[in-house]
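sorry for the late reply, my laptop died twice this morning and i had to redo everyting from scratch. anyway the thing you sent over, i finally got around to it. pasting the sequence first so we're on the same page, its 185 residues, then the predicted structure underneath. double check i copied it right bc i was rushing
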Amino acid sequence: MAEKQKDEKERKSYSAGEGKPPIFVQAIIDNQKMSAIDFFHITDAYLDWDKEGDNEAVLEPLIAFLAKWGDELIFAFDDTMAELLYSLDTKKIAKDIYKNQHFSADEFLYIRCVALVNSKRFYNDVVKGRRKMKHDLEFEAILYVPGLAWARRHHSKPEEYPHSTQFCYETMSNSEGWREDEITM
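ok and here's the structure:
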C-alpha cells in the first residue's frame, strides 16, 4: 500500500486551461527535458513554411512560442537541438554529402540543420542512411532560435543568452562519429 501511495505522489498531473501551456509543454518544463518527438512536433507546428525564403518570418512563430513559455522550454529546445545535430555529425553523413567536393565544417553544420526542420521521419532516415542530405540546402537560422527566444522573453540581446548545452553541435565534435581516418574529399 505504501508503494502505491509513493507512485501516486511521484506521478505528475497536468491540466489544460486558459493561460496554461499545452500539456506536453507543461511536462517539458517540469522535467526540464524535451524528447526528440516533442522537438519535431514543435518545429512541425511552429515553422511557417508559407514564408519560405524569409528565414526570420519562417522562424517567428517558433521564437514566439518558445519565448511565451519561458526559459525551461527554451533551454530544453536548445539541449535537444544540440543533441540531434551532434548525432548527425558523422564522417559517413559528411561523405554522402561531399562526394568529390571541398569539405566545409561550417557548411556541414548548416546542412545538418535542414534535417531538424524537415520532420522526425526525415531526420531518422538521414541518421539510418536511408536518405542523403543535399549539398545545396542549409538552414543555419535554426541555430539562433533559442537565443532569440530568450532575448525576447527577457527584453535583452541574443548575445547575452546564458545557457550552454551538454552536446556541442559544431562539426567534428562527435569524436565517435569521426573516429575513422581523417576525412578526405
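DSSP finds nine helices and no strands in the chain.
thats about all i looked at so far, will dig more tmrw
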